[in-house]
Write a structure and sequence with these properties.
The chain has 150 residues and is an alpha+beta fold. The protein has helices at 12-15, 30-37, 86-99, 128-149, and strands at residues 6-8, 16-26, 41-42, 47-50, 56-59, 62-63, 80-83, 102-110, 116-125. The protein starts with 5 loop residues before the first strand and ends with a helix.
């Protein structure tokens, strides 16, 4: 049962400039947590959003149906509530409304107590020229490593 659960959003660092990170709990049903423990989830297309009651929800998070679940199985893509302190929620909400930043999930993991947690980040979208610069630096690093090998 000590199998490591580590579901990553690999595109996040390329698409966004990360500013602040928070660990948030997530409200799940029984079959959802069982699927996450089997690494059957994806957060590559997901984002976070506030509702009218100032509660933070994760949208478009894909959790595959639990294969041993019967008619009590969950929906694969639905809104799931994130749990943070009131102070953190107010700060995030203020930053999202005033400066136009977005909140994206970076990683889903299981902590020591067995609870599912989401590492979320306040982020600013990168421009295309910033992305080209990252690609150029990556290619230069690969070429330097090739030359060092020879």
């Amino acid at each position: 049962m000590n199998k490591q659960v580590n579901i990553l959003n690999k595109k996040a660092k390329f698409e966004y400039q990360l500013i602040d990170q928070y660990k948030a709990g997530i409200v799940l049903t029984g079959t959802e947590i069982k699927s996450i423990r089997l690494n059957k989830a994806s957060i590559s297309e997901s984002f976070c959003e506030f509702n009218d009651n100032q509660e933070l929800f994760i949208i478009n998070m894909f959790i595959d149906e639990y294969e041993f679940g019967n008619h009590y199985n969950h929906k694969t893509k639905s809104q799931r509530k994130l749990l943070l302190n009131k102070k953190e929620l107010k700060k995030l909400n203020k930053d999202v409304k005033n400066t136009g930043l977005t909140i994206i999930p970076l990683k889903v993991f299981i902590n020591e107590k067995g609870f599912a947690k989401v590492l979320i980040s306040l982020a600013k979208g990168k421009k295309t020229y910033d992305k080209r610069q990252v690609i150029k630096e990556r290619e230069n690093k690969i070429n330097l490593d090739r030359l060092k090998k020879i």
